[in-house]
UniProtKB/TrEMBL annotation:
Polar residues compositional bias, start-end: 1-11
The organism's place on the tree of life at top rank: Eukaryota
Name of the protein in question: Major facilitator superfamily (MFS) profile domain-containing protein
Membrane-traversing stretches: 93-116, 123-142, 148-171, 183-204, 216-238, 287-312, 324-344, 351-370, 376-399, 411-431, 443-465
Record carries keyword ATP-binding: no
One GO cellular component term noted in the UniProt record for this chain: membrane
Molecular functions per Gene Ontology: transmembrane transporter activity
Domain Major facilitator superfamily (MFS) profile per the UniProt entry, residue ranges: 41-469
């Protein structure tokens, strides 16, 4: 059998080699084109996520999971404004209304990701935002438990695909070594939703009685209409691909296309949906390892963020002071998350930042477990929050980087969101309702899970490094089924069928 010809696409390149690859597409022009994407694509995606998190937090204690950058969570603005009493909801019914949103998220994530390219992200993403804007507005007019359950279910269906869908969408605009920082940027910026939602609710509740509607209803109505407006605007400014962007010049479109082709050789070929691609994604060891990791991150983040004010309060601070003291750990986590993502992209490595964040978290958990000093215990929260939240953009970018072609990547990103949400739900119910030493058991569990994530990362690196080496050694054998009798390799078929198992695809460690 003759070896595959040298015309086969080149392996993915490093940031330095990308800068030197083509004189017509200089590093300066590429960076200018990328900056235009940052200024046009990222802001609207950030707004989508911001309104998603804000709309959710308006009803109840929302656990921020692996896919949503956590912010201060607290009894929902609408609940404080009297929603539970006005609708006559029991505590159990109220919890169901909050939890059903996450269940709907898990159900809708995979189907929507698989349909994203077929329908078009320029239609699908704005349509989801517009639809949930209508649903949020409708929450202001519910008058019964059944009605609230229905609208919360619809809200989960429309909101569920957003974050994993945006991750999938951005992977078509940015190279593999640029993705982590962009994911970190839009998820981290969405943390502003907590403060914004609280300030807005404080103003809107003053409308109590206007138009015959209670204050909590106006929270939903106004937030829903704002979301609806942002969704409609998206139809005019969200492009399906970089080539469809009205903000990029023709020259910059060519620069982006060339850049993506050099970084992701398979990007110039369009794969087609098949259940085999879903199966290959679900059975890929590196996907399964990071799926377990996503469950761990969801568990760590949701429980910590949801109960952080209570943990601070148990240190002897007043309720108001406890709320204010949670700002510091979040601010530090915000900065460290961006720095970590920049380091991850700059050096094209995911495992080391993941392990570093786990170590930081373990240090915080250990200090909290061993300390009986109030100030030291509070200081431990900076490590705990920073370590846990720093993981939120790293795992989805690592997974997206190493999953090809499109439908395999769509399955992988949706799967990790579903598992992360489930981990978050489980974590919330594991936290004790009473105060005291029972929190120690949760901290011990968090230390164990963080250590497990380190082990999973090491195993994943070993597996990916082994596969990279094996693909290099067996290149001719892997490509042999796609080489014709004349010695020509069908590159498109090879990339579409092999995907990330293609010998020219280099896994990012």
């Amino acid at each position: 059998m003759e070896p595959a010809p040298s015309s086969s696409p080149q392996p993915a390149m490093t940031p330095e080699s990308l800068d030197q690859a083509d004189g017509l597409h200089s590093a300066l022009e590429r960076r200018r084109a990328t900056l235009k994407l940052d200024l046009t694509i990222l802001p609207i995606m950030t707004l989508y996520c911001l309104f998603s998190f804000m709309d959710r937090s308006s009803i109840g204690i929302l656990a921020s999971t692996f896919w949503s950058f956590p912010r201060l969570t607290r009894p929902g603005n609408a609940r404080i404004a009297g929603l539970q009493n006005d609708l006559g909801l029991t505590d159990h019914q109220y919890k169901i209304c909050v939890a059903i949103l996450s269940v709907a998220h898990m159900i809708s994530a995979l189907p929507s990701n698989l349909l994203l390219r077929k329908i078009g992200p320029h239609i699908m993403l704005p349509a989801f935002v517009t639809s949930w804007g209508v649903v949020v507005t409708a929450q202001g007019f519910v008058s019964s438990y059944a009605g609230l359950v229905i609208v919360r279910t619809l809200l989960g269906i429309f909101e569920g695909p957003m974050v994993s869908g945006v991750v999938l969408y951005l992977s078509g605009f940015y190279s593999r070594q640029e993705l982590s920082l962009r994911i970190s940027a839009f998820i981290s910026a969405a943390s502003l939703s907590g403060a914004f939602s609280g300030l807005l609710a404080a103003a809107l509740v003053q409308l109590d009685g206007v138009g015959g509607r209670p204050g909590w209803a106006w929270i939903f109505i106004v937030e829903g209409m704002m979301t609806l407006a942002v969704g409609v605007i998206g139809f005019y400014i969200v492009p399906a691909t970089p080539q469809d962007s009205r903000f990029l010049s023709e020259a910059h479109k060519k620069v982006i296309a060339k850049h993506l082709e050099l970084s992701q050789p398979q990007s110039k070929y369009k794969d087609h949906f098949s259940f085999q691609q879903i199966y290959l994604s679900l059975t890929s060891p590196h996907v399964l390892l990071l799926t377990i990791g996503s469950f761990i991150v969801g568990f760590l983040v949701a429980g910590l963020v949801t109960f952080l004010p209570s943990i601070v309060n148990q240190l002897g601070f007043s309720s108001t002071t406890s709320q204010l003291l949670t700002v510091g750990p979040y601010a530090v986590a915000f900065i460290v998350t961006l720095i970590s993502a920049y380091f991850s992209d700059r050096h094209k490595i995911r495992s080391i930042p993941v392990i570093m964040m786990c170590v930081i978290a373990v240090v915080g958990f250990a200090i909290s477990l061993a300390s009986h000093n109030r100030d030291l215990s509070y200081a431990s929260l900076f490590f705990m929050v920073t370590g846990c939240l720093g993981l939120t953009p790293l795992l989805p970018s690592w997974l997206s980087n190493n999953s090809e072609p499109h439908y395999r990547r769509a399955t992988a990103t949706a799967l990790t969101q579903m598992v992360g949400v489930f981990g978050g739900l489980l974590s919330i119910w594991q936290f004790p309702a009473r105060e005291g030493s029972s929190y120690d058991n949760i901290i011990i569990a968090d230390i164990s899970l963080s250590s497990t994530l380190v082990l999973l990362s090491v195993v994943n690196v070993a597996y990916l490094a082994h596969k990279n080496k094996l693909k290099t050694q067996r290149k001719e054998e892997l490509l042999a089924p796609f080489v014709s009798q004349t010695g020509e390799c069908d590159d498109e078929k090879a990339w579409n069928e092999l995907g990330d198992r293609h010998p020219d695809f280099v896994y990012i460690l």
